[in-house]
Specification:
The structure holds two protein chains of two kinds. Chain A has helices spanning 2-29, 44-57, 70-78, 93-101, 131-138, 165-175, 196-205, 240-244, 264-273, 276-284; strands spanning 33-39, 61-66, 84-87, 106-120, 128-130, 156-160, 191-193, 209-214, 223-224, 226-228, 251-259. Chain A has ten helices and eleven strands. In chain A, the strands form two sheets. In chain A, strands 1, 2, 3, 4, 6, 7, 8, 9 and 11 form a nine-stranded mixed β-sheet that branches. Chain A has a two-stranded parallel sheet with strand order 5-10. By secondary structure, chain A is α/β, with parallel strands linked by helices. Chain B is mainly alpha-helical. Helix content of chain B is 76%, strand content 1%. Chain B has helices at 2-7, 15-52, 55-58, 73-104, 107-121, 125-144, 152-176, 180-188, 193-204, 206-222, 225-230, 251-259, 267-305, and strands at residues 63-64, 69-70. In chain B, strands 1-2 form a two-stranded antiparallel sheet. In chain B, a hairpin with a 4-residue loop joins strand 1 and strand 2 (69-70). In chain B, helix 5 (107-121) crosses helix 7 (152-176). In chain B, 36% of the residues are buried. The chains are: A alpha/beta, B mainly alpha. The interface between A and B is medium-sized, with 27 and 30 residues.
Chain lengths: 292, 306
């Protein structure tokens, strides 16, 4: 009886000693570093790829990446719930004012670029189009390839679904030519395909088709059209150079915003994103890397 | 004691039998309760759409939700034209195959073919959609000289293919259930084999064949993945038979493509539920019509027999 009680007491003492010594060694050295990252759905896959890669480089930093849209990300940054906001557009002046009122000062980083290539079938003789022509094609004003210097064929317009960020960007910048007052819509018989592969498959086999997609999705089996911002400008083909020097007209910058000038491990992360290693991932995901 | 229970007019059932009865009853009612609850859920989620959107907008012919244009007529028209096309393909092929299997084919052939047809019914629709996108639609474009093969016709052909196994399997069972004495009597009266099939066997099995057709239509109208991949999804209001050759957008494809990205409780979200309820009501009408027709036929048959 006494012996078993003694044994029990000894065990308890040993256990207590164990946990006591363990916690006193671990706690001070292990600092939890968490970066909350939220925003644009266009960027979310890129941000996730970066976060995964960075986990290998610095395992002590934990990144949590979520989408929701550029506006959602910036709102979260203003409310102080995230450390970095992703945005596929520049922060609006109203948003910056609200941020300053709430005591945060968003600092902008251009982290990658996104270019949209206009693609047609390899057998289509058309090489160049101006933005106005593309707008007229997609809004239904031009319906035959012969009106833009091609063969006598009906134009079949291909687009991504309305939920794609690329669809909205194309509507604003190409169809409405960047004019906020312009309320032109996609022609009603534009085919809305659920995937890049759907667009690619149709472009490869149909000489009537015209489509658009991120530069990274273009393969050798499609023809990329040179685009001019207006008829007195030169026709430019999309590439890393023409996108980076601003010549190609259908391209946009992708941003990250930090709350104030970044410090410590957040600064380390943003510096790494702009490094050549991280920019290699940009190319792999179909965006255009930043060339300094 | 034992014999008394055997011959008793109303023996008291044992307790566990009561339990089993209750379980079976609950299972039977649960289907009704589930359907009722789904309908209620759809109704609650879709009513705000009717309040937020003007009727003239809802009944317009332009569907472009990101600019608040919610015309649902092109979507209803798209689903209907594809379903009608699929039915026109599935009924002759399906019933024809069923007649061949049940009445004409030798026993060994029938026992090989029927399982094969049923395997066809188990093909994942995304696989069919992929074949349609890469093979069927390019050939349709070349053969029929269309601007694009991604059209209502491509959707109707594939949906017809999806519905055929259902139609074959159930019609064949119905034809098989027709008593042999019917055929014997017909043949003994001097009718040819074809006359027997067309005038005696098929009419005798018509309620089963009709059920098969209705189930096939139900399968076609609810199909999503295949139509999303091959119909081009352009919301054009079909106005005639020529629109079978142009792209269309169905209700199912719209819900599937847009539900993933829509903001919870937005107008767009509620409209998608409204489309869901319209789809639900169309299936309901198809089923109720089928039951009503079958019921009336049974009654008239009973009258003839009595």
């Amino acid at each position: 009886m006494y012996r078993s009680l003694l044994f029990f007491v000894i065990i308890i003492i040993l256990l207590a000693g164990c946990s006591g010594s363990g916690s006193s060694v671990d706690n001070p050295s292990q600092q939890i570093k968490i970066i909350e990252n939220k925003g644009s759905d266009t960027i979310v896959n890129l941000a996730l790829a970066w976060a995964e890669e960075y986990q290998v480089i610095d395992p002590s930093v934990h990144l949590s990446v979520t989408g929701g849209g550029s506006g959602t990300g910036i709102a979260a940054l203003i409310n102080g719930t995230v450390d970095i906001a992703n945005a596929s557009r520049k922060i609006k002046s109203e948003e910056r004012e609200t941020a300053l009122e709430n005591g945060s000062d968003p600092v902008e980083f251009v982290i990658a670029r996104d270019a949209i290539a206009i693609i047609v079938n390899l057998n289509n003789p058309v090489d160049h189009l101006t933005l106005e022509q593309i707008s007229a094609i997609y809004s239904g004003k031009i319906n035959n390839w012969k009106d833009v210097g091609g063969e006598d064929r009906t134009i079949v317009r291909l687009s991504r679904e309305t939920n794609s960020g690329t669809h909205v960007y194309f509507l604003d910048v190409v169809i409405r030519l960047g004019d906020d007052e312009n309320k032109t819509l996609f022609s009603q018989n534009t085919l809305l395909l659920p995937s890049s592969e759907g667009i690619g498959a149709e472009i490869r086999q149909n000489p009537n088709a015209i489509g658009y997609d991120g530069l990274g999705y273009v393969t050798d089996e499609m023809k990329v059209i040179g685009v001019a911002s207006s008829s007195d400008h030169p026709f430019i083909f999309p590439s890393a150079e023409t996108v980076n020097n601003g010549q190609y007209p259908i391209a946009r910058d992708l941003y990250m915003y930090s709350n104030g000038e970044p410090e410590g491990f957040i600064k380390d992360y943003l510096d790494w994103i702009l490094s050549p290693d991280a920019q290699k991932i940009v190319t792999e995901l179909g965006f255009v890397p930043i060339i300094k | 004691m034992i014999s008394k229970q055997k011959i008793g007019i109303h023996p008291k059932p044992p307790k566990r039998e009561f339990l089993i009865t209750a379980l079976i009853k609950a299972a039977g009612y649960s289907a009704i309760i589930f359907v009722g609850m789904i309908f209620l859920f759809l109704l609650v989620e879709s009513i705000p759409a009717l309040k937020e959107i003007e009727f003239s907008n809802l009944l317009s012919s332009r569907w472009y939700p990101i600019e608040d244009l919610y015309g649902i007529l092109p979507l209803i028209g798209g689903s209907l034209i594809i379903t009608i096309g699929a039915t026109m393909i599935a009924v002759p092929f399906g019933v024809g195959t069923a007649i061949y299997l049940s009445e004409i084919a030798p026993r060994w052939l029938r026992e090989t073919l029927k399982p094969l047809v049923e395997i066809l019914g188990g093909l994942p629709s995304v696989v069919l959609g992929f074949l349609g996108m890469l093979i069927l639609s390019p050939y349709l474009r070349i053969w029929l000289d269309l601007p694009t093969g991604l059209s209502a016709l491509a959707g109707a052909i594939l949906l017809g293919g999806i519905a055929i196994p259902t139609v074959v399997s159930i019609s064949e069972d119905a034809l098989d259930a027709v008593p042999k004495s019917y055929r014997d009597a017909s043949l003994a009266m001097g009718a040819t084999e074809w006359q027997t099939i067309w005038r005696v066997t098929l009419p005798a099995a018509r309620s089963g064949v009709l059920t098969a057709v209705m189930l096939g239509i139900g399968r076609a109208i609810g199909e999503t993945m295949t139509v999303m991949m091959v119909t081009g999804n352009a919301p054009i209001l079909p106005t005639g038979i020529k629109d079978l050759f142009s792209p269309v957008r169905t209700m199912t494809a719209t819900i599937a493509a847009e539900m993933g990205e829509v903001a919870n409780s937005s107008t767009h979200y509620h409209v998608l539920f409204l489309i869901g309820i319209i789809l639900f009501l169309i299936s309901l009408v198809v089923n109720v019509t089928a039951s009503a027709v079958v019921f009336r036929q049974k009654k008239s048959q009973e009258r003839i027999l009595s």
